[in-house]
Each structure stands twice: as structure tokens, then as C-alpha cells.
Amino acid sequence: MSASGHTSHITTHVLDTAAGRPASGVAAKLEQLAGDEWTAIGDGRTDDDGRITDLSPPAVEQGTYRVTFSTGDYFAAQDTDSFFPEVVIAFRVTDVDAHYHVPLLISPFAYSTYRGS
Questions:
Q1: PANTHER family, per this entry (predicted)?
Q2: Which of 18, 33, 61, 90 is deepest in the core (most CB within 10 A)?
């Protein structure tokens, strides 16, 4: 259960691999694809541990989603040059009862992701 009072089916965790610590304060937006249009369904900012635990509504449908992370703003706030102004991760939800964790590992000039648990 998150601070907003619901358990999110989609969560994220951002780690700053160059600094060796969680990336606190990274803005993220969650969108769902409906036809040819992306619709915003959630947003948040990473906490001190680099996590957003209430990114999505309490329930999500099967479909295609994406999370857009404002990585350029994060690095600019630290006075650090970076190459990617944002990172967009698109993924599919196939099991509406499952938890989908979308981690992001960032540095000023690279990023990586995987399906977390």
C-alpha cells in the first residue's frame, strides 16, 4: 500500500548508477495506448529511495503502456551534463492481476531497464 492509499499494479525504481545511489526527484508519467493515442493515467516523482509506488491506478487493463522519465531535468538539477533529455519505456500488460515493476538504471550518457518483480 502506498502513501496515496492504493496498491499500484505498475511501479518503478530509478537508480543513478554513476552516483551509486537511488535517483530522488525524477519525474515520471505513465500513459496507456488507446487506438493511436497515448492517454496519461498517472504520474509521480521518485522518493528518497528512487521509487514511485503509486504510479498507476489501482487496476489496469491489458494493453500497451509507457513510462516517460524526465532524466534530463534530474541531471540538470545536479549540474551534470547528460545526453538523454528523457527516457521512454514502453511495455505490455498481459496479466491484469500481476504486478509490473519497471526499473530504470541511469547515468548521464546511458540507461538500462528490465522487468522487475
A1: 5-HYDROXYISOURATE HYDROLASE, URICASE AND TRANSTHYRETIN-RELATED
A2: 18
Whether the pTM exceeds 0.85: the reply is: yes
65 is in an annotated binding site: no
Instruction: Check whether 9 is labelled as a binding-site residue.
Output: no
Kindly report, residue by residue over 15-60, the tens digit of the pLDDT. 999 999 999 999 999 999 999 999 999 999 999 999 999 999 988 9
**Is residue 1 assigned to a domain?**
no
Domains contained in the chain, number: 1
Instruction: List CB contacts of 63: < 8 A, sequence separation 6 or more.
Output: 32, 33, 34, 92, 93
Rounded distance, CA 58 to CA 25, Å?
A: 23
Distance CA 13, CA 47 (A): 9
Q: Is 13 one of the annotated binding-site residues?
A: yes
Taking the C-alpha atoms of residue 103 and residue 31, their distance in angstroms, rounded to an integer, is 16
